[in-house]
């Protein structure tokens, strides 16, 4: 932003961190993800299902009107609409070309890794005098310049090691793919990160044999995420409902599998090393960025789940293109798209008021970040346990919060009902004692009545 303060309008029902992050993304200059000039390689806009008069919400931008900073299309971006945004007939308005990603788009839990990466590239790209050889989609941390910021599930100096979470049932995290098919299964509560690696020059073939989670879509809390595209830093294909067998082949020799389960559920996949081209997945080479002057969006429509309303326009200013925005050179490949459309379970949005008596676990921030665009990014000085707890807290969905509220409501109702029953029984006992006293005139019982009246059940 240049020249003053940018206004962010948050309407009723939109007061959640990820939605605030979405609107702040507009204020920082970012379009909706499905408005990217290269979106046709990743999604189809089903205009026949869009509410009349709202077609402009799906307008595609031209290549010279935006800059991607070399970051590929992100299905898990907080800036991406969900499949049913502005639907007039409860049918999808957006369909992913690779149908494995259909339940990934539209999450509103947190900014994705690549969302934050783009913000840093836009505003902090010249902070460090040199860059580190970060792997797997990681990039040099602009706050320290001596470490890498790593995608979800990875850690290490150069983002080459799976994070060891506290879950005791994860088992072996580093898996080697060979020509012999192997099986990876997981069930029950857990946060596990698996890296499957084939020999150099080969790829990883994956068969999704079984997925069973009792979760809503888009997948936000309990799911298995398989990253098999060119950029492992990008959000992978998330599965959180029962699906038929799917088969994909990775774009590289590495696949990252993230298991996130807050309750019951399980998954089973088979994997092996193969030769040849990739099949399925987000395998299109990220576009080279040639834009020299980005012009940011001039409107910030409210997220469609917030009553399907739009905010009033908010004007922004163009910013200069940061240096080093070219995308890395990546071998070209072809994209194979599944032809079978899976059944889609739509989660009805739930408007939940903020629960003020519950203290959430929040990331740590340093004072210097409070006036900077990267105040959205937590301090890197986080212990593994804190990181686990932070991730656990972020993955709470609206449905789960609503579930907790329902439990609290039931508890209140039970307490009220119990109080009524106790008062009823107390009154009945008092009446019986009084009847006995009146009938028999027994002094001891009268004294008992007086004592009883002063006691509480």
TrEMBL record:
Entries under Gene3D superfamilies matching the protein? Collagenase (Catalytic Domain), Spermadhesin, CUB domain
Q: Where is the composition biased (Low complexity)?
A: 283-294
CDD domains, alphabetized: CUB (cd00041), EGF_CA (cd00054), ZnMc_astacin_like (cd04280)
Q: Where is this region: Disordered?
A: 275-294, 307-336
Please cite one Gene Ontology biological process associated with this protein. Answer: proteolysis
Record-annotated Peptidase M12A domain positions: 1-125
Q: Keywords for this entry?
A: Disulfide bond, EGF-like domain, Hydrolase, Metal-binding, Metalloprotease, Protease, Zinc
Recorded E.C. number(s)? 3.4.24.-
Under the heading InterPro entries, the entry gives: Astacin-like_dom, CUB_dom, EGF, MetalloPept_cat_dom_sf, Peptidase_M12A, Sperma_CUB_dom_sf
> Which residues, by range, are in coiled-coil regions?
none
**Alphabetized SMART domains for the sequence:** CUB
Domain spans labelled CUB:
170-274
Please name the top-level EC class of this enzyme: hydrolase
Which cofactor(s) does the record list? Zn(2+)
Give the positions the UniProt entry annotates as the active site: 23
Q: Which top-rank group of organisms is this from?
A: Eukaryota
Where on this chain does Zn(2+) bind? 22, 26, 32
**Pfam families in alphabetical order:** Astacin, CUB
User: What name has this protein been given in UniProt?
Assistant: Metalloendopeptidase
In which organism is this protein found?
Panagrolaimus superbus
């Amino acid at each position: 932003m240049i020249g003053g303060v940018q206004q962010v309008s948050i309407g009723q029902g939109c007061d959640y961190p990820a939605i605030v992050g979405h609107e702040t993304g507009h204020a920082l200059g970012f379009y909706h993800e499905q408005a990217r000039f290269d979106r046709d390689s990743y999604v189809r806009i089903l205009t026949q299902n869009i509410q009349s008069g709202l077609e402009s919400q799906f307008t595609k931008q031209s290549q010279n009107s935006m800059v991607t900073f070399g970051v590929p299309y992100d299905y898990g971006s907080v800036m991406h609409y969900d499949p049913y945004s502005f639907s007039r007939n409860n049918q999808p308005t957006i369909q992913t070309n690779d149908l494995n990603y259909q339940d990934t788009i539209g999450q509103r839990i947190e900014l994705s890794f690549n969302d934050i990466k783009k913000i840093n590239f836009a505003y902090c790209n010249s902070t460090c005098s040199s860059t580190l050889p970060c792997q797997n989609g990681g990039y040099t941390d602009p706050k320290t310049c001596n470490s890498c910021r790593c995608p979800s599930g990875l850690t290490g100096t150069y983002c080459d090691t799976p994070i060891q979470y506290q879950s005791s049932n994860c088992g072996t995290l580093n898996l080697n793919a060979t020509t012999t098919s192997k099986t990876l299964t997981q069930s029950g509560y857990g946060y596990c990160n698996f890296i499957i690696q084939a020999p150099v020059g080969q790829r990883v073939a994956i068969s999704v044999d079984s997925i069973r989670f009792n979760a809503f879509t888009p997948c936000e809390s309990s799911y298995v995420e398989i990253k098999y595209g060119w950029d492992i830093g990008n959000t992978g294909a998330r599965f959180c409902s029962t699906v038929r067998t799917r088969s994909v082949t990775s774009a590289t020799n590495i696949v990252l599998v993230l298991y996130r389960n807050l309750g019951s559920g399980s998954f089973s996949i088979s994997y092996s090393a193969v030769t040849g081209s990739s099949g399925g997945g987000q395998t299109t080479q990220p576009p080279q960025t040639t834009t020299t002057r980005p012009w940011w969006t001039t409107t910030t429509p409210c997220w469609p789940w917030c009553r399907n309303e739009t905010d009033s326009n908010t004007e922004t200013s163009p910013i200069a293109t940061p240096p080093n925005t070219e995308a890395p050179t990546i071998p070209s490949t072809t994209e194979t798209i599944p032809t079978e459309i899976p059944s889609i379970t739509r989660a009805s949005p739930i408007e939940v008021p903020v629960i003020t008596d519950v203290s959430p676990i929040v990331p740590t921030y340093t004072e210097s970040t409070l006036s900077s665009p990267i105040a959205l990014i937590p301090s890197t000085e986080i212990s593994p346990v804190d990181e686990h707890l932070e991730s656990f807290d972020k993955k709470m969905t609206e449905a789960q919060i609503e579930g907790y509220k329902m439990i609290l409501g039931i508890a209140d109702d039970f307490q009220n009902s119990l109080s009524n029953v106790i008062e009823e029984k107390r009154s009945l006992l008092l009446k019986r004692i009084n009847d006995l006293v009146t009938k028999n005139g027994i002094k001891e019982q009268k004294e008992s009545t007086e004592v009883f009246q002063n006691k509480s059940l």
